[in-house]
Amino acid sequence: MWRSSTASPTALNRAFRQVHGLAPSEAQRPGARLKSYPPIRFQITVKGVEEMKYHIKPMEAFTVLGKAREFGMENSFAEIPRFWDAYSAQTPCPPVRGCLGVCRESLDGSGRFTYIIADPCEPDAPVPEGYERFTIPAFTWAVFEGQGAMPDALQSLNRRILTEWLPTNGEFELAAGWNVESYSMGDMQSEAYRFELWIPVKRKEEGK
Predict the structure, then answer these.
(1) DSSP H or E run through 175
(2) pLDDT digits (tens, 9 = 90+) for 167-181
(3) 31 Cβ partners below 8 Å, 6+ apart?
(4) Are the C-beta atoms of residues 183 and 151 closer than 8 Å to each other?
(5) 3-class DSSP state for residue 36?
């Protein structure tokens, strides 16, 4: 049967490197940075594709200290920013700076989840009144790089991961009901502000 030369392993490797900047064999190494593109959609005009930058990062379990509150999915996009605003307005400054936002889904099937304004800490760190320690299990994380003003940029990236990356990704699937928002120093209202969103993943064949 006739076979196009563009389907050869060499051609595919070359195309992979042109898109991701590294060979397929290098993509399996921890910390390798890959790019994901949603499918092109045709309407009156062709929608331009916008890349999602991410890398796969295995991590051991770690502990955080934070202020926790329970939310429902239906109002979380409005209520969590209010939670942050109220927390940041406290005087004197609270003991947890809030460099992480941690989501942990409820195991009772209610659709509710715990959101924690948190900092990393030692497993035996003292716990101030009104705060809690949480241990995040060891996972392999898909770490997505985001940029833009909060909270819209974060919420937009979250939607794109759930509606574009997870359904079309042929290699990974969601591993557990956790995710972590990692915040950098800087002006969170700037379009240049950078952050990360961590999603626990596993290879699809692992779940079979």
Answers:
(1) none
(2) 988 899 999 999 999
(3) 55, 56, 57
(4) no
(5) strand
